């Protein structure tokens, strides 16, 4: 009985500490992850991607949006270990206020999309592309004015129009005279008997980053983020037209929801200038 009471006391203390931590959260710079807008309508959506995984998300439209005119559409992806209600919904709502039709998705195996849960797949970007295919048919927009924040792939356009799915290879499986020393080092393990496993799928997100060109690419990063090198590396490997925009004084998580730090004007200007 004493052990039981002690356990209850410990649990109560943990709950109290948790409550205190919640009240002590840093809400500076207008942090508002669960922002709601009186001028935006949110509609739940469900569809299947090309792998027959059920994807769930939300469609955001401004209340006074005219169905008789074309409006650009934007797909908003959530952070890697988050769900659509964390950061993605916030961005989708704010951009919808500017007149864009936006969609936020739970990427497969996160949130309400597919099982098992909490899996990060190499096909992550393709599911965002499936959201683009959905918006091609469900939003009142022109095909040439679609945008995607988290990924861009021409093949998704073909699939959205009913064309066949085309698959491409991953990391090159043979050496050439131009193969770098780093690639040779990894090849020596992954593509020889030393470490080759036929069930392993090789994937590196930067492999095809140059294929986004000639579509414009905007990187927005925090200059105080511990992860800023990833933005720098991605920018260096991307082809023109491209731009790397630094948010002064911001850290890695600050751009998730801090209204006053996020460069909304920059985002709006970029999309409006490039929807042609």
TrEMBL record:
<feature type="signal peptide">
    <location>
        <begin position="1"/>
        <end position="24"/>
    </location>
</feature>
<protein>
    <recommendedName>
        <fullName>AB hydrolase-1 domain-containing protein</fullName>
    </recommendedName>
</protein>
<dbReference type="InterPro" id="IPR029058">
    <property type="entry name" value="AB_hydrolase_fold"/>
</dbReference>
<dbReference type="InterPro" id="IPR051411">
    <property type="entry name" value="Polyketide_trans_af380"/>
</dbReference>
<comment type="similarity">
    <text>Belongs to the polyketide transferase af380 family.</text>
</comment>
<keyword id="KW-0732">Signal</keyword>
